[in-house]
Structure formats: C-alpha cells, structure tokens
Design a protein that fits this description.
This protein has 223 residues and is an alpha/beta fold. The protein has six helices and seven strands. The protein has one domain: 3-Layer(aba) Sandwich (Rossmann fold). Helix 1 crosses helix 5, helix 3 crosses helix 4 and helix 5 runs antiparallel to helix 6.
Length: 223
C-alpha cells in the first residue's frame, strides 16, 4: 500500500543531501512525498539580497521537480536563529503543517548536528510527532547532512546509522538535484561537494554490499 512520506528539513538542500535518493525511491514506488522547510538557509548570511533569496528558491523548485516532491511548505522561521524562538512556537507551527498530511513516514535531521537549526528541527519533530494514540506516524528516521553531521562537537552523540536504503538506481537523481543547488555546493575537497556526496553514497552502499546507499538512524518504528 502506498504511503505518505514527509521530509522535515531545516533548509532547502538539506533534503537532497540527507535523503534525496530515498525520496526518489519513494516516488518511484508510488508514495506521495511532501516536504516542510523550517527556515530559508540564506537570510542569516551577511549582505544577503532579495536576488539571493530568489536564486535559492528557484534552485529549490528545480531540485524538487527533479526529486518528484508533491507538495512543499515553508514555515519562514529565522535562519540559523531558530534557537531564539520558544520551542513551543516552533512545534505549533510544525504541527499545523503536519496535521493535514497525516504522514506515516518522516525523515528529519540527526539530533547531534553542528547546525543549530538542524538540532532544533529534530527536537520540534520529536515533540510534534510524539506517539499519542491515533497518531498516523509509524516511522521516523534521522539523516546525515554533510558539513554539519560530521562536523559536530565530539561530545555530541555521533551519527551511528542502523538503516541503509539502497539508492543504486537513484543516485543520479540525488546528484542532479544537488547540482540544481550549485550555489550551495562547494569544490572538492570541501565536505559539501558533489564528489563527497557520491563518495559517501558509495561508502554507505559498499558497507552493506550494494552500489550506493543512504544511511539513517531509526528513531521510531511501529509495526
């Protein structure tokens, strides 16, 4: 039976970095995949212009078309300053976005990332999706985002994946979506480079005997 899948990410490009291959695989299987973005990923940068915002949004639209996302919502929270808001305000905004979708599967950030918006997003997801009776959410997975997850403080709980999704047939779609975000990508040997994304997918895949994979932490799984 087809599922409703929701990606909850702090910023546009996190979805392609963290689970672009899984998104493409869900879409190919006939699942309805939606996304909610908490902040814009641009406005915290010095000297940001309206044109910069327009370019980021245009890149996101192109990437989402490549990935096959059905519906996208933007909550417009303050970029890289989500910790300045009461958590309740973040949770309530997220709950309003989640409720009409009634997703069975959610992908979101690992709680130990360096980026503060990633950590707040994770916390808000876990609060908004607390396992109340009648909740439609049956699965929650945490993904890794290059240049944040692996850059975290050593004292943070490390990303230790226990779920691997075979994206051998979908790696090219993931990379195409990331090329749409060209202004956000960097040249190798930067961690957030196309080359590193592919190397990581190959590494995750080879570690479980497939050509390419994305890895996740299973946060909740109800069968």
């Amino acid at each position: 039976m087809n599922q409703t899948v929701l990606i909850i990410a702090a910023h546009t490009d996190d979805e392609a970095l963290g689970c672009g291959g899984a998104i493409a695989r869900h879409v190919a299987a006939g699942d309805a995949v939606h996304a909610v973005f908490m902040a814009d990923g641009v406005s915290s940068r010095p000297d940001t212009t309206p044109e910069d915002m327009d370019r980021r949004m245009a890149a996101a639209r192109q990437a989402h078309e490549i990935l096959g996302l059905r519906r996208v919502q933007y909550l417009g929270l303050p970029d890289n300053r989500m910790d300045s808001l009461p958590l309740l305000d973040v949770v309530q905004a997220l709950e309003a976005a989640i409720e009409p979708l009634a997703p069975q599967v959610i992908y979101t950030h690992h709680h130990g990332d360096l980026n503060i918006d990633h950590r707040i997003t994770h916390q808000a997801v876990m609060t908004a999706c607390r396992p109340l009776p009648g909740s439609p959410v049956r699965e929650i997975y945490g993904f890794e985002v290059l240049s944040s997850t692996e850059w975290a403080t050593p004292q943070q709980e490390p990303f230790a994946p226990n779920v691997f999704v075979d994206i051998s047939d979908f790696l090219s779609i993931k990379l195409s979506a990331l090329r749409a975000y060209q202004s956000e990508m960097r040249s190798a040997p930067h961690s957030r480079s196309i080359e590193h994304v592919e190397h990581l997918a190959r590494h995750r895949g080879y570690s479980v005997g497939v050509e390419a994979a994305e890895s996740f932490i299973s946060i909740r799984l109800i069968r």
